[in-house]
Amino acid sequence: MGNHIEVDRDRCKGCGLCVVTCPKQIIELGRDINVKGYHFAVQTDASRCIACQMCAVTCPDVAITVFRAVRRPAKSA
Q1: 8-29 per-position pLDDT tens digit
Q2: How far, in Å, CA of 45 to CA of 57, rounded?
């Protein structure tokens, strides 16, 4: 899997800071509601994620984990 984020849906309070800070604008507040009654953040297009970590850094609830794809160098023949 490539770059992507995972949101701890029950920790997210739907403040929207990650939505505003994402340079690719690929995070939005979803329609579903968590156990606390908040609309939580969801990533809309993981293929465009650059794993910059801006969303995770700005999240006051530490609800976002960023995963960066590992690129392995091609083996020489």
Answers
A1: 999 999 999 999 999 999 999 9
A2: 20
User: 69 — phi, psi (to 5°)?
Assistant: -65, 140
Contact 8, 63 (CB under 8 A): yes
Q: Where are the alpha helices (H) located in 14-65, listed in sequence order?
A: 17-21, 54-58
Residue 71, C-beta contacts closer than 8 angstroms, at least 6 positions apart = none
Residue whose structure tokens are 């609830």: 61
Domain 4-67, CATH among 3.40.50.10700, 3.40.50.300, 3.30.70.20, 3.40.50.10420: 3.30.70.20
